[in-house]
Amino acid sequence: MSEATRPTLTPGLLGALGFVAMAGSLATDLYLPAFPDVQDDLGVSAPVVQLTLTAFLVGAAIGQFSVGTVSDALGRRRTLLVALSLYAFAGFGSALLPTIEGVIALRFLQGVFGAVGAAVARAIVADIAETKQQATRGISIVVAMLGVGPVFGSPLGAVLVEWGGWRLALTGLATLASAMVVVTALAIPESLPPEDRHPARIRPLLGNLGRLLRDGPFVGYALSYGLTYGAFVVYIGSSSFIVQSVFDRSPMTYSLAFSASSLCFVGGALLNARLAKRIGAAAGLRAAHIAAIAAAGALVVLASGGALTFAAWVPLSCVFVAGIAGAMSNTTALALGRAGFAAGAGSATLGLFQYVIAAPASPLGGLWGDDTALPATIGMAVGAAFALCAALSARAAERHR
Length: 401
What we know:
Helix 5 (76-96) crosses helix 8 (132-187) and helix 7 (116-128) packs across helix 8. 82% of the residues lie in helices and 0% in strands. The protein is built from 14 helices and no strands. It folds into two domains: 1-188, Up-down Bundle (Growth Hormone, Chain: A), CATH 1.20.1250.20; 201-401, Up-down Bundle (Growth Hormone, Chain: A). By secondary structure, the chain is mainly α. It has helices spanning 11-21, 23-29, 35-42, 46-74, 76-96, 100-114, 116-128, 132-187, 202-213, 216-246, 251-304, 310-336, 343-361, 374-400. The model has no long low-confidence stretch (mean pLDDT 84).
């Protein structure tokens, strides 16, 4: 690929990458309001309905790890087009099936193919970016758009369920997936020229993964990314019962508070994009982690003393979430900066760390029941602190090398 034909990280391309990266988050945020209707329509229990989400997350973990790596061999654009088409097909199919078993199976496939959006979007930014600062800015913008998903995904899902039940919600999700296919075809160029691709054989692909896992700084940044996301998942998984049970607020109040934190996630990622050129990814990562740890630590102190109120929870959780967004952006850029020989495999490995750590972290906020916010705030603070330690270790190993 010559310099004349090499794609650049234009605002339009970053917007397109951010849109397709939403595939995984929209598949959960838009679908969650449909749970009660699925239960009533198919006559199954709530835990069985929750298996549709579990199946999706398991599929996403597999998809992040495998499809991103495959794109190193087949190219980014082709991988996106095929995977997103299958993602849309699974969505339309799941809306038509009469049994919960069929819905669970197709939601698993949606997870596998929907995960390609975020994994390949990160890899494309890493392919095109000419400097670490440009990569950090680009990834920050993609992460910011990921935060937009919850702002409109959950309300849109609620409206679709009210209009036509859970089947219309899944049809709406599949329609958005079809739009992602169109956007990929029209606005996302190939970023990995044939001469830079790896053989489409298992052994070389596994060799790339092994090379990454032997790279101490890369593993440190990937671990930091996973721990950062794990702290975020503790917040997401416990925020509903904290607001509604601990603070005795209405579902609408919770929805507004969660939307505010989602906007702060977007703001944190965009602020990080502006700071990338000025202070660099490593300094930005430390600042973002410190902000998240300080906010979560304040929540721990207030919760342990019985002084945590809704008025304190909202601004402190917003600062925490903004710090998380900056930390996720910077760890992604720093990790993929060490995976230039196989950005798809690097992005896939980040996704694997993300889901492996997030899965056990999700229920930690409710360990002591739904009448206290203390375990959730401790989980948020400890996760962010461990993430900072992993990042500092990666930076130290990088300097040593």
